[in-house]
Predict the 3D structure of the following.
Amino acid sequence: QVQLVESGGGLVQAGGSLRLSCAASKSIGRFDAMGWHRQAPGKQREVVATIISGGNTNYADSVKGRFTISRDSAKNTVYLQMNSLKPEDTAVYYCRVTDWDNRNYLGQGTQVTVSS
């Protein structure tokens, strides 16, 4: 079992920045992919950004150029740096990892609210 603990959410004005962190209970070398998803009220959960074991990254079109995903193997942590935040970025953000057996684990979520 893998535990994921997200932090860094909060309330920020439009144009501001936040950095989300997701600390995993096991070495991130166990994971084929790590990523961030979000779910806004009344909407389906969507993939925001992913980073795979080789280091390649992918982003939703809506966040390209504003968000950056990264990881720190020494800390077993994946980050999401969010700049130029918009009200439409308001959502609960979840960390999700996929291990080499294709099992998925989801964190408890952290709320991000962007005021206009």
